[in-house]
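ugh ok so i messed up the first submission bc i forgot one of the chains. this is the corrected input, ALL of the components this time, i swear. 991 residues overall. if the numbers dont match what u have on ur side tell me asap before i send this to the collaborators (the ones from the other lab, u know who)
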Amino acid sequence: MAEDPTAAMAKECKVRLKISDDTIFEVEYAVAMQSQMLKNALSDTGTDGTVPLHNISSEIMAKVVEYCAYHVNAANTISEKDVKIWDQEFLKDLDQATLFNLIMATQYMVIHNLQDLICQTVADRIKDKSAEEVREIFNIQNDLTPEEEEEIRHENQWAFEEEGWPEIQEEVRLEG
Amino acid sequence: MSGGASGGGSNPNRISSGGGGGSNGNSGGNLNNNNNAKSPTAPKSKTQSKSMRMRMFPTVLDDKLSFGIWMTLKSAIQEIQKKNNGGLSFEELYRNAYTLVLHKKGDTLYEGVKEVIREHLEEKIRIDVLNSLNNQFLQVLNQVWSDHQTSMMMIRDILMYMDRIYVQQCNVDNVYNVGLNLFRDHVINHPSIRDHLRHTLLMQVTLERRGEYIEAHWIKNVCQMLVQLGIDRRSVYEEIFEAPFLEQSAEFYRGESQRYLNENCASTYIREVEQRIEEESKRAQRYLDAGTEQKIVHVVEEELITKHMTSIVEMENSGVVNMLRDKKVEDLNCMYRLLCRVTTGLQCIISCVSAYLREQGKSLVTEEEGGKSDAVQYIQKLLELKDRLDIFLVKSFNTDKEFLKMIAKDFEYFLNLNPRSPEYLSLFIDDKLKKGTKGMTETEIEQVLEKTMVLFRYLQDKDVFERYYKQHLAKRLLLNKSVSDDSEKNMISKLKTECGCQFTSKLEGMFKDMAISNSTMDEFKSHCNNAGAHLHGVDLSVRVLTTGFWPTQSTPFKTILPIAPRSAFEVFKKFYLAKHSGRQLNLQAQLGWADLNAVFYGIKREEPDPAQMPNTKYLNDPGAEPNSQLTQDQPRKHIISVSTHQMCILMLYNERDSFSCQDLANKTQIPEKDLLRALMSLAMGKQNQRILIKSPKTKEIEPDHIFTINDSFTSKLYRVKIQAIACRGESEPERKETRSKVDEDRKHEIEAAIVRIMKARKQMSHSSLVNEVTEQLRTRFMPSPVIIKKRIEALIEREYLARTDLDRKTYTYVA
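and heres the new structure output, hopefully the right one now
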């Protein structure tokens, strides 16, 4: 297996990614390098061939490539604030299914920043939702008996109290 | 995400293209068929749009399938190990591993991989290495290691998912480290291999030390391998190579040190040591691990330097002392550098140099009993010693601070061994500041004075120096011997910087007096002209000195001056006292001088007919007695420059030609020792200086010896200066006197210090008081605790201090 010593030359190359429905995505070397797995694959096998990625649909692949292409340049040229805005836009209208597909894809391909971004988005979506609603979203079967449920709710009551600790608030005011 | 129960399973049998058998494409991502573009494969039980559908996982990867996957991977790994990886698809293997881990078969995979690697190492690699033990061992070892690294990296890449997920979760070693551990355990730590490796490496080093050529890069690679095999610790490297290496080296250098010592020459020894250190350093850099360099250098230092440093430093005929004597600056520098490397080395060489310096210094300051040292030579030699040491300091010892300290301490030590050092130092400076200093330029004088200041700092009894300096300065100023005012002022400002104003205020006062005297004299002259005062033919010049600034005569003045100068002085006195009322003027005879006009009549004691010499001013011969004439030579006139005492003596010879010593004493009332000194220089100096003839011609002067005018006095010069007897130092009694004055002053200073301190602190214990006093006075002199105690007692008596009732050792201030 050849290593990749002539990195400069390789940068010019395009990498061919063949996905499940035999569509071929051609991306630039730098873009592909955002994926750790692709990086290893290419260094081990060389850039000549096509890398097959059977797990991934074209729609998901498109999204991934879009993200990676943007972020290749983002590091150097675009301000952090703008990048954040773009990221939010990128994920805004995606439905949950797509999101989860994306997560699986990024985990497979080892793209850290995108994975973190998506997970964060999902987390935001279930924030402040009741248990029922979360179950709906994730389609989880409720396997707790009513007693168990009551008990758990009771134990965690404190986290739901809004008023916090009024005494301490008073003290703070006094000291301040 | 828990495996949901929604919807039926999607068929696990969809075979993805391009993959090896059985991989379940739908582990994870969409199993892509053209059928489902966007929506999940699971049957929709609820609305699609916003709600999340669980991915349809095959809940169970059945064993047969997973075994199949594993076998694929296993054979792939084995191919990689055989360097046959060309035909493998990275992505497929990666996906296989991914699948297994995802379906909770991570441990099977992990253990399986471990087993494959171990098998390969044990059954192939180790055997290869064992076969090469006597045939290109290092080469083969290097090769298998390199191969191992490459294959492990590839294996790691395809198993990356397992590394990230399974390894993290179960907290086991990652794949690469697993490979390292296995290599270490099954190849390197195999007894034969390990021992042979160690032996080979050590042998190579030994060969190189003997000067043979070796293949260094093999060793370098092997060392790096050993380091890497320790993963985060150097223990493998240390155990297999470094520790035995250091031990072998220590033994080697033990032998070497003996060999070098036997050559019995310190300078060759140190050069050889330097060379060896250099060599070992380079070797370590070339092919050993970075951390070894320091250790091996330390070993060399230990064996060659630390263990033998005393022998080298003190080696006979070539040790440090000899180097100092022979001025071997380079050798000393080399020695210094070497000894600095080890902790006690610097101390060793410092003590040796210090001992030498003290010995040298001591021999310079020690005088024979009763012998008179030449002060200028004394100081000059000390300055030269300092210069020599300074050269060593800079060139050999790199201006090391410890050496600076040592030199200062040693100089302080031996300079103060001789109590006459302050006096001599003052005399030396006096010599430089007097006229006729053999044509030294201002800058040269400046440099010399700067160096003397260095010695001054080492003096303990600075107040003794002050006293002498005052005396000498007074002489210089009054006898007009100063080479330049600027140099004098320069010297004083140096002393001021060193010791503060108190030291120099009196000296500056002396200068002021001189200036004032000059202007007073000008006024006096114009006064004389205006008032027509008559000075009895004496060209008078008076210097008015403020008492207290100038060193005073102990005995009051009772010498009888000749009439003419006496009357002239009275005129001046009247003038001065009219100007400054309320002052008192006392004549000080020991520092005056006079120019006399003298006529020498030739061999016979005769006097000329006054008529024959109409032009001469017989200033000092108002009552010349006529004698018979018959001279054979022409009478010769000279101006003689003499001291005041000598003037008194010589003026008497206008009455008679000869006097006895007792006569002279009676008539002039000059104190005895001054009289003797004056007579000595008049009668017993060099031939062309003998104004008087002494009979009998012995060396001592007794009261009944006769002194006669020497009419056959001749001199090439018209103006003859009668030299005072060279008083390079005081005589014993004078010295004692000065000493007692110093002690007297010190008493006062100590008492003043005590009172000052007690006034501020109100109460102090005895020991802290003594410390405080010593601290305050140390710039002038070192008071001894005994003397301080005496002064405290005296002050208690005079009720300045009191002892407290509770504690006899504490004092209070009595207001």
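quick check: The interface with chain B takes residues 1, 18-22, 36-37, 40-41, 43-45, 51-60, 95-101, 104-105, 107-108, 110, 136-141 of chain A (CB under 8 Å). that seems consistent at least. The radius of gyration of chain A is 23 Å.
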